[in-house]
Amino acid sequence: MSFGRIALLLLTAAALQFFFGASRLRGGWAVDWFLIATATVARSGDFVRTVLAGASAGFLEDGLSREMLGMNAFAKAAIGYAMALVAMRVVVAGPWAVGAVVCLASIANDAIVGLLASLLLRSPLVVLTQATALRAMVTGVAAALLEAAWSFPWREWWQKRRLRRLR
Question: Does 29 score more than 80 pLDDT?
Answer without folding.
Answer: no
